[in-house]
Design a protein that fits this description.
By secondary structure, the protein is α/β, with parallel strands linked by helices. The protein has 2 domains: 173 residues, Rossmann fold, CATH 3.40.50; 56 residues, N-terminal domain of TfIIb (Single Sheet). It contains 7 helices and 11 strands. A 7-stranded mixed beta sheet has the order 3-2-1-4-5-11-10. It has a 4-stranded antiparallel beta sheet with strand order 6-7-8-9, with no helix packed on it. Strand 2, helix 4 and strand 3 form a beta-alpha-beta unit. The chain is globular, with a radius of gyration of 18 Å. It starts with a helix and ends with a strand.
């Protein structure tokens, strides 16, 4: 699913990305020279802007296609192909960020393993920012359908199903290439954790939640928030 169709669909605008990066710098008090792990960095949407401010960014992603699309102009941005369950970095990071609902892709034990790996990359006192859809709002997405044009010849359909008992959202995608008639079916499953569940998981790996936000505009988290942005500190 993390291929050219991801790059061409439903991504935030440049202005939104700038707002998100400004929020990250502010709430984490990032200074030039700080070492940041950008986990699931994709095409470097945030990492490039952070690196331009003198922050040393290490981007990790499992998609070779997306990593090839990272601009090479930022001197302080380095990318590595890797699995978030086995992060190829140990210690030395001041901050880790995981953005755009890029957590919860696995079964329970592997999701826990991801958090253990994140904690192992951080210095004592290092912070972890996890950006997630608001799990309470996810309920409203159940059975929704959405068509959109990826390009002039590429049509996409997304159908969402949410298993409230298990906490898993399944995003079924159908990609139709009109020029060839090719049809591709893809699915992405995400486990959504409610605030107390996530706090417990983080505590297991010595990450203490110190703040919750409802969006990148610094609004406090509520049941109606669009996002759940969690800030945790390594203790």
């Amino acid at each position: 699913m993390w291929d050219e169709t991801y790059l061409l669909s439903e991504l935030p605008s440049d202005a939104e990305t700038e707002e998100e990066v400004a929020f990250i710098v502010d709430v984490l008090d990032l200074q030039p020279g700080a070492v940041v792990l950008d986990l699931c960095c994709g095409q470097g949407r945030h990492g490039q802007l952070l690196a331009a401010q003198g922050v040393k960014v290490i981007g990790v992603d499992s998609s070779e296609f997306l990593l090839k699309n990272v601009a090479k102009s930022a001197a302080h941005l380095h990318v590595v192909k890797g699995d978030m369950r086995h992060i190829p970095i140990q210690g030395g990071c001041d901050v880790a960020i995981n953005l755009y609902t890029s957590f919860g892709f696995f079964e329970e034990e592997d999701n826990r393993r991801v958090l253990r790996e994140v904690a192992s990359t951080l210095k004592p006192g290092g912070k972890f920012l996890l950006d997630y859809w608001n799990p309470y709002a996810v309920l409203q997405l159940n059975h929704t359908r959405n068509w959109w044009w990826v390009s002039d010849a590429l049509l996409a359909l997304a159908v969402v199903e949410y298993d409230a008992e298990a906490g898993y959202l399944s995003d079924y995608r159908t990609i139709v290439e009109l020029s060839t008639g090719e049809v591709r079916d893809l699915v992405n499953r995400v486990r959504f954790y409610f605030p107390m569940e996530l706090q417990s998981l983080l505590a297991e790996v010595n990450l203490k939640v110190c703040a919750l936000y409802g969006d990148f505009d610094h609004s406090p988290f509520t049941l109606e928030s669009r996002r759940m942005i969690t800030i945790a500190e390594k203790v």
